[in-house]
Amino acid sequence: MARPRKPAEQTTSPIYRGADGSWHARVTMGRRPDGTTDRRHLQRRTKTELRDAVRELEHRRDTEGYTWTQGDPTLGDWLEHWLSAVLPMTVRWKTLSTYRSQIRLHVLPTLGNWRMSEIQPEHLEEHYRRMQSDGHSTHTIRAVHRVLRSALNEAVRRRRLAANPALIARPPRGEDVEVEPLSIEESRRVLAAAQATLHPARWSIALSLGLRQGEALGLLWADVDLDDGVLRVRRSVQRHTWEHGCPVVDGSPSCGRKRGAECALRTGGGLLLVEPKTKASKRTIVLPQPLVDELRSHRAGVNRRRLAAGESWDSTHDLVFPAASGGLIDPSRDHTEWKALLKRADVREVRLHDARHTAATLLLLQNVDIRTVMSIMGWTEMATAQRYTHAVDELRRRAARQMGALLWDQQAGT
């Protein structure tokens, strides 16, 4: 039996020159879920360019199969919808804020006006090469790639896009980040110098337990059981950006201020206590006995300062590490104090996050098994531990020495 003849509009795409001087075509792709015909509009500067684009689209339709998609928004329009209507229900504020910044700085200026159906993997790879030429790090480029991949995956799921080009595009190869922990001697010098700071125990916790900055600053005394010698990580400090609280008129805040922090009716910003970023981050840690003793002394000192301050003390939260007048310590101020502490201890300058790396390294060098280290540090992936190659190499050498002593030293003595 002969195959039914296809309608003419499915075999021939009309091409015409518009009043704007450009060449246009309507390519029939198939049927929408409601049964109506789905036609795609193409526009190019010359007739030759348009013919090539029509052939490519028809070839994709005939060979790759047809997937109906709703409209053909620009990448910028879809990303704005994704950021404002989809993500807020599924991610935390800090993640959303990071995504917004990456898209605004690194995606919209170059790719924002592209129709999503036109974006190919090669376009993304070319964009990554331009970012490299502009001096952006591999870490930044790979972060942008992850955001695009996630956003376009959602577009495919919601039938705004037939296929995700970011799944095929290859970003630059990731750089191996070398962990630079403090040595045991450097750590001891830091702890000695910390005795002259407002909160010496703050830095003892950083170097011995490896708490993240926000986790340490968000500790409440209710989280610390000194009798049982345990500490529970339940929350973290974050600084949120202030938003305008005034009415919007003609697309702009009515207060006339550019930044939300300058609005008299500002809302949603400042220092806040938030939930940790992962389930593994909520954890219970057994404290070394010297740290228990130090925290007892520290609590007595905090109580003395609170009594001396009287009504001027901010008692909103019963913090383990309150600011000078109570209340939450700003993470930027905490970072500045870390830098000053290193200088006072005559120790090379390292990041505050390297205190966390130091704690993890010291645990590994004491033969603490990797699962226990992951539990203490709040890691969710074994791959994170593989970054500590310097510690792992030392453990391998130690294992080799122990095996040598077990099998060969006894033979040498017989």
UniProtKB/TrEMBL annotation:
Keywords: DNA integration, DNA recombination, DNA-binding. Residues 1-47 are annotated as: Disordered. Residues 73-156 form the Core-binding (CB) domain. Residues 177-402 form the Tyr recombinase domain. Residues 31-47 have a biased composition (Basic and acidic residues). PANTHER family: INTA PROTEIN, PHAGE INTEGRASE-RELATED. This is Tyrosine-type recombinase/integrase.
